[in-house]
Amino acid sequence: MIQFLLNQELRSEHALDPNLTVLNYLREHVGKSGTKEGCASGDCGACTVVVGELQTDDHGREHIRYRSLNSCLTFVSSLHGKQLISVEDLKHKGELHSVQKAMVECHGSQCGFCTPGFVMSLFALQKNSDTPDSAKAHEALAGNLCRCTGYRPLLAAAEQSCCAKQPDQFDAREADTIARLKAIVPTDIGELNSGDKRCLVPLTVADLADLYDAYPQARLLAGGTDLALEVTQFHRTLPVMIYVGNVAEMKRIDSFDDRIEIGAATSLSDCYEALNAEYPDFGELLHRFASLQIRNQGTLGGNIGNASPIGDSPPLLIALGAQIVLCKGETRRTLNLEDYFIDYRVTARQESEFIEKIIVPRASAEQLFRAYKVSKRLDDDISAVCAAFNLRIENGVISDARVAFGGMAAIPKRAAACEAALIGQPFNNAVIERACAALAEDFTPLSDFRASKEYRLLSAQNLLRKYFIELQTPHIETRVTAYV
User: Fold this and answer.
1) For a Cys-Cys bond, which of 171, 228, 367, 478 suits 482, CB 3.0-4.6 Å?
2) Which stretches make up the FAD-binding PCMH-type domain (predicted)?
3) Coil/strand/helix, residue 452
4) Looking at the DSSP assignment, which residues form a beta bridge with residue 325?
5) CA-CA distances (angstroms) from residue 374 to 153, 294, 331, 441, 462?
């Protein structure tokens, strides 16, 4: 059984299809049809809901963290121990919520199909913002698409809802909601079971290891932003899943003198602060990683584990010399991330083995790390090419080089010939040009609807040139956010 709050209503579910998304649960099982399906792939934001989760701050104070999610990509099992809020829950005692009023007064809706998703994104923005902030408003709404209104009135609604922020029914009930969430904190393995399909929800790494050993055919479910597409887009059935989002040990971020250890189930939003503090380019790239809804849900371990050749984080982590800890039963092994990827969607992971955490070296003054993403649009898009450069230069000579790319091969990988052309050489234009030519030895990219092979190779070479120019003239640095 799993338990969660549907706004303030306690729901206990057991005999549900684990392949059921939160979107279809709301619409088909509880009669809340305000949440819409637009794309069923997490691109449009029409299905946005907000999930509240019990948190404790550094001072030991308990509070509820509200985050926007795409309900079309969220399986019901991931709600275990949390609160689900949909657009129907905002109106209170016959009065519209302040974010709904802002949408009306700023003329933020026309046909209205996308409106519930915008309202819920604004609600989450208001809950997480004390003052109007244009950058935060753009970030909050980047995962919501509108075909007819135009974004000026929507941004005006965001500004008004944060300016006119007033206590609402959720604030008034916070103490009671905290008490109710504490009452349903999971204490044992949860399960959804429809007879022929099941999803298990462990709470510890040990339980996860035991379950995965017992069900090696199971699919591991973290954020589900990629896995759910098999259900929503390809109409496949997932007979057995194991949801890792309630394993607290795998959601920790621990900092040491020489490294940061990030639990594989840590959301990309939670990774941001730690990675941005060490490597600002990593933080900038995370701002361009899909949308806020996806980052709130997707995990760093999942982005690695699905082994996509165009995943945004692996090239950066490889260039930084990151490692992963793989767990199977009581056995653990540490593997250089670059050795994890073998071929297209083929990895070094053994049966019943899972990624427990990612180890990222701390930054040093000698490192010259930069990352770049080339895509068709700035926000909410997949890379055509993703590049990461990490050089050490001593007395004008390149003493070490780690260069990694995504989108250039069947796997994210280092550019060995390019690195060889750089190491031991002076850091000058002639050497960079030879290294650019060497990239043609490292990669034979494919052509697809994102980019031609010629465009990919030329882009990779130009990104290396860009890296060189920026380090020579840092005052013109544009970095990852400005390169499209």
Assistant:
1) 478
2) 192-365
3) coil
4) 334, 357
5) 29, 19, 39, 21, 11
Other Cβ atoms within 10 Å of 465 Cβ, number: 14
Burial (CB < 10 A; 0-12, 13-18, 19+), residue 26, is: buried
Contact residues for 384 (Cβ-Cβ < 8 A; gap 6+)? 310, 374, 375, 376, 407, 450, 451, 455, 456, 459
- pLDDT reading at 476 higher than 60: no
Instruction: Write down the pLDDT at residue 482.
Output: 40
Length of the chain: 484
Q: Report d(CA 49, CA 246) in Å as an integer.
A: 19
Report residue 477 as tokens.
């640095």
Q: Which of 475, 275, 279, 460 is nearest to 372 (CA)?
A: 460
> Is residue 392 exposed (0-12), middle (13-18) or buried (19+ Cβ within 10 Å)?
middle
Dist. CA 123–CA 97, nearest whole Å: 9
Give the Cα separation of 257 and 262 in Å (integer): 14
Read off the amino acid at residue 432: I
pLDDT score at 474:
65
Q: Which of 340, 352, 353, 350 is nearest to 313 (CA)?
A: 340
- The runs of H, that is alpha helices, within 40-150 are 98-105, 115-127, 134-141
- List the beta bridge partners of residue 263: 357
**What's the pLDDT score for residue 133?**
85
pLDDT class of 5 with cuts at 50, 70, 90: very high
Strands across the sheet containing 219-221? 190-193, 198-201, 240-243, 219-221
Structure-block tokens of residue 354? 């899972």
> Averaged over 309-337, what is the pLDDT?
97
